[in-house]
Amino acid sequence: MNPSLSDTPAFSRRGLLKLSLGASAFLATAGLGASLSGCSTDVAQSGFATLRSGDLLFLRALLPVMLDGAVATEHMPAAVDGTLKSLDYNLDHLSPEMLKLTRQLFDVLGMAVTRGPLTGIWGSWENASADELRHFLDRWENSSLSLLRMGHSSLLQLVMMAWYGRKESWAHCGYPGPPTV
């Protein structure tokens, strides 16, 4: 009689070590390739202090999904632009180490070699549907890997602080604004 799948472990210790080593090598190679090819440049896009062109491609695709329900459809382009400006301002005031970590997150999400396996978005960000982007966010939020859950939390906090720090967001959440002095 053959043992059932539930009776056999999914990974042996050796298998898990091989998988971990392979994943580490993959990410290290992708990071090295990006830095050598110039993909992870630190040059900000014109009009921004810290956000780079690759960051903007990713964020312009993701922000409408993250702001869905908080912004009327006709106001979404202006809300995305304003949120990007606020996010850029906030990032420009981070410590150098926190900015470095945020850029590493954006680099991983921007490179095709890491984007597909980690997010499920195999094409470019601007071609991803809203459902694919929601699935990516859900996947990271509920991942068994703490690193992906931390990435989701970072993205969510960065975007929500940038959006809800803007005056046009206050009416939606019932905030009357700061008192006049």
From TrEMBL:
PROSITE patterns: TAT. It comes from Pseudomonas reinekei. It comes from the Bacteria. InterPro entries: TAT_signal (IPR006311). This is Twin-arginine translocation pathway signal protein.
